[in-house]
Amino acid sequence: MQKNFDLLIRHATVIDGTGASRYIADIGITGDRIAKIGDLSAYSAKNEIDLGGRVAAPGFIDAHTHDDRMMLSDPEMTPKISQGVTTIIGGNCGVSLAPMPRPIPDPVTPPLNLLDDAGVWFKFPTFGSYLDALKSQPSTTNRAMLVGHTTLRVAVMDDLEQPASPEQIVQMQALVTEAMQAGAIGVSTGLFYEPAVAAPTQEVIDICRPLKVFNGLYCTHMRDEADGVMDSLEETFRIGREVGVPVVISHHKVIGQKNYGRSDETLAFIQKSMAKQPICLDCYPYAAGSTVLSWSRAVTSARVIVTWSKAHPEFAGQDLDKIADKMGVTQEQAINQLLPAGAIYFRMDEGDVQKILQFGPTMIGSDGLPHDASPHPRLWATFPRVLGHYRRGLGLFSLETAVHKMTGLTATNFGLTDRGVIQEGAFADLTLFNEETVDAVATYENPIALSKGIETVIVNGDIVWEHGHVTAARPGRVLSRPVA
Ligand code: ZN
Ligand code: CU
User: Are residues 264 and 254 part of one domain?
Assistant: First the structure.
């Protein structure tokens, strides 16, 4: 008998990613697309899944990742696919693996070492050669990539403590143009980090100039997320206006005890500014951040957990104060002995985290760090935590809204055509889950753990996750942003 579809999902509660109310339907998939939605009881398929009323949502889009190397070194992408993530945005916080037209410094300049402390993966002289590697060795997830401003500085400048010279700006503009022609979706900055702190606003504007003709995005880990957060928002919006492109405020947060509660101020300003120019933002669902270890960050934190250390790998996963006790030194001295290293910093207000998550335009992004020995739990648990703890547990928003923040909203903001929605003709990226059980399992103490309730994950029509395991399929594609 002739089969109508390759895959037929029966009795789904469809949450379509647009924010619209749920409905019951069957979903027929042919090739890489959703072919038909409705009562398909008269149809059959080569492969069928009966959901019995459980949820079918668009595959989640991780708006903020550092998966640039994981896609090549661990193409099963288990931390992501097991959460229902089917597309990742990479190259964030100024940190991308490419282009690196000359040898990377040894030791690798922090924070570029978040991607690869040994430096061997910074081997792509052009952005195009990196995207070619992603295309020829596909992973489970789709990806859309940014080119990092810090990577460009390290590629072109010998003294990172200076503003770029006019010649260096021209060189970096050429690298941005090459990246955009090859299929990058924009530029990211990490103006907060040491190798980019010396870059004045004008340097960023000049380097980003080529974005305009490609309809690229400007994504930023802002210069200051603490006392100077309002000035940093102003700077971000100015860059967007002068370059003439949309901006994405990465992992929006307010840091430091004396700034607790200031999300009221930042969100009001973001909302007001959105009326004048295109602005997007993402957030991870935790009151602790994670990045490279430093005393200046540790001293402003209520608690610090070391996530990796090159000199003392045995201390990964332990609290800094306990490590200092064991070493018999001060915490500042302990840090000097641990470096290079990474850490989790507790220095946000849970009330701010909830307000930012609840803010209508906020997308969900993990900011997970896949190469840390004892990573922040956001790597394995961001999406189930939003659906479990924040949606079902605290009731911050409806399930339809939660799904929209991780699918349709994100696809629209990043220009991912025919993704992030369940509609006839859209790509068949789907996450099938149980809304009663979905939740994070990973914790700060036990950070590597599969989440609960994510049953089946489909990318471009292929099942990549089922029965708690990654399948052999590697259907992930490189996605680009349409030129307006
Ligand atoms: Zn960042
Ligand atoms: Cu980041």
Answer: yes
Task: Give yes or no: residues 262 and 202 share one domain.
Answer: yes
Q: Do 166 and 185 belong together in one domain? A: yes
In terms of domains, do 156 and 201 share one?
yes
pLDDT at 484: 67
Write out the residues surrounding ion ligand 1, Cβ under 5 A: 93, 221
One domain for residues 294 and 201: no
CA of 242 to the centre of ligand 2 (A): 24
Q: List the domain range (segments joined by +) for residue 459.
A: 5-58+423-438+449-468
- Ligand 1 centre from 462 Cα, in Å? 32
pLDDT digit string, tens, across residues 233-292: 999 999 999 999 999 999 999 999 999 999 999 999 999 999 999 999 999 999 999 999
Distance 221 CA to ligand 2 centre (A): 7
Are residue 53 and residue 172 in the same domain, yes or no?
Answer: no
Has residue 36 been placed in a domain?
yes
SS3 sequence of the chain? CCCCEEEEEEEEEECCCCCCCCEEEEEEEECCEEEEEECCCCCCEEEEEECCCCEEEECEEECCCCCCCHHHHCCCCHHHHCCCEEEEEECCCCCCCCCCCCCCCCCCCCCHHHCCCCCCCCCCCCHHHHHHHHHHCCCCCEEEEEEEHHHHHHHHCCCCCCCCCHHHHHHHHHHHHHHHHHCCCEEEEECCCHHHHCCCHHHHHHHHCCHHHHCCEEEEECCCCCCCHHHHHHHHHHHHHHHCCCEEECCCCCCCHHHCCCHHHHHHHHHHHHCCCCEEEEECCCCEEEEECCHHHHCCCCEEEEEEECCCHHHCCCEHHHHHHHHCCCHHHHHHHHCCEEEEEECCCHHHHHHHHHCCCEEECCCCCCCCCCCCCHHHHHHHHHHHHHHHHCCCCCHHHHHHHCCHHHHHHHCCCCCCCCCCCCECCEEEECCCCCECCCCCCCCCCCCECEEEEEECCEEEEECCEECCCCCCCECCCCCC
**pTM for the complete prediction?**
0.98
CA of 65 to the centre of ligand 2 (A): 6
In the predicted model, what is the mean pLDDT of the chain? 97
40 confidence band (pLDDT: 50, 70, 90): very high
Same domain, yes or no, for 34 and 64?
no
Query: What CATH number does the domain containing 255 carry?
Result: 3.20.20.140
